[in-house]
Each structure stands twice: as structure tokens, then as C-alpha cells.
Backbone:
């Protein structure tokens, strides 16, 4: 529990002043003062609006949206607004057959990211007296490095252990006396159960707080993790297109996640009509990262469905709070923190040409880890009457799925016609994880 | 001497084999021999039937993945040691076998169905040693 606030000036700003600041920042953004090439033809192509029409935050809705497809179409660096010499970091998420979503960061972007993560960690009570174990994956995924820089900014001692290697996680947790754990909620629960099984003296475990995100989780999971690890568990939200983790974060009141609105301007829209909805209504979350330099996306559609609340929080912050996301306005799945689109599976199968793209993704959660089974209907061209051939095929599908999607899946070969088709369209996903 | 075998992909699901045998019964197709190679999730049914081509078509129409594979039927005496003797002959001639299954027909003879890459080589070896091979006419009309 902590009442500390990292940056009172911005986190507790009067709403009116904050909205004025947002207006100024958006104006700067579209006029290219902070981002020299933003108003070039490329970024305003298709956009019927004129940068001169943007003067206050209310004018934001005149601007068109950006989608994940725009990122794919401009792969890899097409949406960067700075020359490569000013890009200091590249992150990427998995994408359809080799085409990932790439994001670039300038030196200032990295600093801004560190700032919002520092604010987030402060919400969870993290100070320079803490030892933080970062068990998010380090690498192209934004989780590890995102938390890392913010934790260093706060002055905490960082253990950059990355994901996996559970035995080592528990050993360092005990030997180093980690006080804060940052990872995906499913891994936190897994670590909690492993801790219970290992013969570790609980008095040697100093954990007090956890910062968990990158995948959906429930209140039920929260209490389970809190009980297993003896901590208070906080929810952090983010997406690489906007910055990474640290777009919003829960304070100790746990009444939604505070959006760092001075940097990321949120809107809620009706995903079908694209009309902007008032606070309190359920819709698709849209962000404009107004201060981002290297890749400032205008009105990026997150596809996450949630509500925003603007009443001042008991913690003293005036920043809007977003509820836990209740779903997606597209078919994206988040599996062990990795974004997976059913269409990616289809693309992998089509490319192998041996299989019909009739498949079913069955996602479940066993022992707190997401499991994926891909049922693939076999066709006659590749049906071999030898077990070793069919097993080799299964291995090939498995390897291709792993390299394209970044997740390991169980492949089950099924007979033609096994997967249910309704209205001529096959069902692609069965998500058995109980998240509500 | 080459015999056509039907191979069918079957999911491990209660009643699935019964559905298949039902279809064959309805269509008056006799099964001379069969075996199932099973894995955790699925099985491969291999069988020698009276009319392989029409049987394959019928099963395909019912949505089964079917393949017609060439095999041979090696006929050996239905007595102790005869299988061993035949296998020794094949292995001493360096013939690799993918899979095989056997059925005894009557008191004196047994037939071993063999699937291999080099079926012709097996035929040659067996002929050379005066072994008896199943002829197409023997099985299909059973």
C-alpha cells in the first residue's frame, strides 16, 4: 500500500488544465513541431483533415483512425517519423507469417516510457528500497525492457531474470530477497504454486507486491496470486503500438487503471459506427500517444473493449481510470502474453499446402498456464498410411506454428468434417479459459 | 501378386470404427483382413477387402480420408517356426519392412500382409525361394 505519487504535477492535474494540455500536445503533434515529418503527405494521406483544423482536444475526433493493418501495410519502418539515426530501439510483436508489428523509439520515447513505468511502479509502492524481479520476457516483447527501465528510474535494484526457469526464479527470490515481482499473471500464479511445492521457508520470501499484465486476468486469479505469494497484486496495461507496459496502471484503490493522459490520450468509440462515446460507456479503446516521437500513431484502435471513468480517485490522482478490458472487438487472442490471431494459424496451414485450412484453436488454462491445442483436419493428398509420416507432419505443423506465432501448441490431427461448421463458416476458436 | 490395401484415417472416438464397418456391410463389402495402427489421438485402419476401388469411393463419399496402398501377401505354413524362417530370409536379403500383419486361413496356411518400399525386391526374394504369394483373385473374391 502506498500513497506515493511519482509525478504529482501531471498525475493530479486539474481536469480542465489536463484537457488543455492534451489539446496543445495534439496540435503540436499534427503540426509537426515535435515530430518534424508527421505532417508529411505520407502521414496525412487518406486523411481528409487539415492540421490547421486541430486546435483543442475536442478537434481530435476530426482525425481518422490508425489500425494494426496500417502497421502491417507499412512494415517495417513505414510509419516512423524520424530518420533511422534518431531511432534507438526497435520492438516487435508476432504477426502473420513473418510480418510482425514493429515499433520504434527515439531517445525521448525511451525516457517518456521510463517515466510512465516509474509512475506505475510507484503506484504499486515500489521505491529505491525495493528489489524487483522482472520475469517478463526480455527481447522483442516490450514487457521485460519496459519494466526494466522504469524500475531503474525509480532506483529499485533490478533482477533482469526474464521469463521461464522457474527453479532459478524461486532461488533468486529467496537468496536476493526480491520484494516486487513483475510478470504475466499466469506466470505469477505458476510461480506461486511452484513455491508452495518447493521446500522453501516462507520467512525467506520477502515479496510484498506484484505488477502483472500483458494478458487478461480475473479478480479470482488476483486473489489466488495474492494468497499464493502473500502479496498485493496490481494490474498494468499497455500495448507496444502505444509504448508497451505503462499506458495505464492500477493504484492501491484498485478502482481501474489510471491512464497517463498527458502522454496517451484515450477515447472510447463504438467499434461499429466509430462514434465517440461518453465516459462510463462500454466501447473500443482508442489511444493517441501525443508526445511520442518515433512513431506517433493518431487515434490508434486497440480493439480492447472497456469503459473510462473520470471521477477523481481516492488516491488523489485525476487521471481517468479504465476498467479491466472485457473483450476484443476483433478475434485476437492473448495466449501467455502473446498476441495470436486465428488468421495466422490459417496462413501457416495454407502455406504448408498439405492441409486444408480447416482448423480449431482450443485455448484452455491448466495449472495457471495457457494451453493451446490446434485441431487440424487432414485431407487425402497428404494422408499417409504410415504413423511415422503423420507424426512428421504433426511436428512440421508444430514447428511452423511456433516460429510464426511464437507459441508452442499441441497439434491434433482430426478427420475431415470433425470441426463444426455453422452457416458454412467454421468456428475457429474455443476459449475455455474462465476469465469472468 | 501386388494386392491393393485400403488405409483409412480414423479418430480415436467411440463408435467411429463401427460407423465404418456399418458402411461396408451396407454395401456388401467383405473384409478379409485388417489391422489398426494406433496413436494417442488417431488410428490408421488397414484392410484387405473384396472390392477395394468401389470400397474406397464409398468411404470417400462418407468423408473418410482413404488411401489405396500396394502390399503383398506372403503365404506360410500355419506351424511353429515358419514365420521366423520367412523373416530370416527377408532380413538376410536386407529388405526393410514398413509394417505387416497376419491372418491364419484354415488349418494349414497363414498369410502375412507386408508393406515395404521395395515390394518387387521382396517378391523376387520369395519367388527365388519358392515361397507362395497371395494372388489378387484369392482375396478379392473371398
Residues:
Amino acid at each position: 500500500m502506498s500513497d506515493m505519487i511519482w509525478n504529482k504535477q501531471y498525475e493530479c492535474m486539474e481536469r480542465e488544465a489536463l484537457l488543455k494540455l492534451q489539446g496543445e500536445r495534439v496540435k503540436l503533434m499534427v503540426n509537426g513541431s515535435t515530430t518534424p515529418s508527421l505532417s508529411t503527405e505520407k502521414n496525412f494521406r487518406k486523411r481528409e483533415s487539415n492540421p490547421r483544423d486541430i486546435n483543442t482536444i475536442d478537434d481530435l475526433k476530426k482525425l481518422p483512425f490508425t489500425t494494426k493493418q496500417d502497421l502491417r501495410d507499412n512494415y517495417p519502418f513505414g510509419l516512423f517519423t524520424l530518420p533511422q539515426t534518431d531511432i534507438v530501439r526497435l520492438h516487435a510483436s508476432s504477426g502473420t507469417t513473418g510480418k510482425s508489428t514493429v515499433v520504434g523509439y527515439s531517445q525521448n520515447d525511451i525516457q517518456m516510457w521510463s517515466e510512465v513505468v516509474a509512475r506505475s511502479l510507484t503506484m504499486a509502492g515500489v521505491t529505491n528500497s525495493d528489489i524487483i524481479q522482472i520475469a517478463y520476457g526480455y527481447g522483442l516483447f516490450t514487457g521485460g525492457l519496459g519494466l526494466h527501465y522504469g524500475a531503474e528510474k525509480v532506483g529499485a535494484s533490478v533482477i533482469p531474470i526474464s521469463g521461464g526457469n522457474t527453479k532459478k526464479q524461486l532461488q533468486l527470490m529467496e537468496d536476493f530477497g526480491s520484494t516486487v515481482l513483475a510478470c504475466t499473471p499466469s506466470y505469477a500464479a505458476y510461480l506461486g504454486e511452484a513455491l508452495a511445492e518447493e521446500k522453501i521457508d516462507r520467512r525467506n520470501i520477502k515479496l510484498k507486491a506484484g505488477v502483472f499484465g500483458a494478458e487478461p486476468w480475473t479478480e479470482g486469479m488476483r486473489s489466488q496470486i495474492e494468497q499464493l505469494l502473500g502479496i498485493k497484486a496490481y494490474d498494468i496495461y499497455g500495448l507496444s503500438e502505444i509504448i508497451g507496459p505503462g499506458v495505464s496502471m492500477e493504484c492501491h484503490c484498485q478502482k481501474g487503471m489510471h491512464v497517463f493522459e498527458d502522454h496517451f490520450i484515450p477515447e472510447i468509440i463504438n467499434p461499429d459506427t466509430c462514434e465517440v462515446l461518453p465516459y462510463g460507456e462500454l466501447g473500443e479503446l482508442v489511444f493517441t500517444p501525443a508526445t511520442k516521437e518515433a512513431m506517433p500513431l493518431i487515434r490508434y484502435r486497440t480493439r480492447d473493449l472497456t469503459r473510462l471513468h473520470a471521477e477523481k480517485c481516492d488516491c488523489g490522482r485525476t487521471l481517468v481510470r479504465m476498467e479491466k478490458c472485457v473483450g476484443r472487438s476483433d478475434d485476437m487472442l492473448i495466449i501467455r502474453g502473446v498476441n495470436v490471431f486465428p488468421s495466422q494459424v490459417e496462413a501457416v496451414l495454407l502455406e504448408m499446402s498439405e492441409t486444408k485450412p480447416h482448423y480449431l484453436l482450443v485455448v484452455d488454462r491448466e495449472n495457471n498456464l495457457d494451453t493451446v491445442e490446434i485441431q487440424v483436419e487432414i485431407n487425402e493428398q497428404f494422408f499417409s498410411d504410415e504413423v511415422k509420416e503423420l507424426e512428421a507432419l504433426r511436428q512440421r505443423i508444430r514447428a511452423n506454428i511456433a516460429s510464426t506465432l511464437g507459441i508452442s501448441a499441441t497439434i491434433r490431427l482430426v478427420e475431415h468434417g470433425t470441426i463444426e461448421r455453422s452457416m458454412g463458416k467454421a468456428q475457429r476458436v474455443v476459449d475455455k479459459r474462465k476469465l469472468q | 501378386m501386388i494386392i491393393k490395401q485400403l488405409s483409412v484415417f480414423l479418430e480415436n472416438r467411440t463408435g467411429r470404427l463401427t460407423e465404418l464397418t456399418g458402411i461396408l456391410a451396407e454395401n456388401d463389402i467383405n473384409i478379409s483382413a485388417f489391422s489398426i495402427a494406433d496413436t494417442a489421438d488417431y488410428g490408421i485402419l488397414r484392410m484387405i477387402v473384396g472390392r477395394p476401388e468401389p470400397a474406397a469411393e464409398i468411404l470417400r463419399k462418407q468423408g473418410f480420408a482413404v488411401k489405396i496402398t500396394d502390399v503383398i501377401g506372403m503365404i506360410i505354413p500355419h506351424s511353429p517356426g515358419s514365420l521366423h524362417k520367412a523373416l530370416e530370409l527377408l532380413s538376410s536379403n536386407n529388405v526393410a519392412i514398413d509394417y505387416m500383419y497376419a491372418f491364419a486361413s484354415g488349418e494349414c496356411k497363414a498369410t502375412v500382409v507386408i508393406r515395404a518400399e521395395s515390394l518387387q525386391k521382396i517378391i523376387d526374394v520369395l519367388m527365388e525361394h519358392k515361397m507362395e504369394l497371395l494372388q489378387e483373385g484369392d482375396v478379392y473374391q473371398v
Q: What stands out?
A: The radius of gyration of chain B is 16 Å. Chain B has a mean pLDDT of 91. Chain B touches chain A at residues 5, 7, 9-11, 37, 39, 41-42, 44, 46, 60, 63-67, 69, 98-99, 115 (CB under 8 Å).
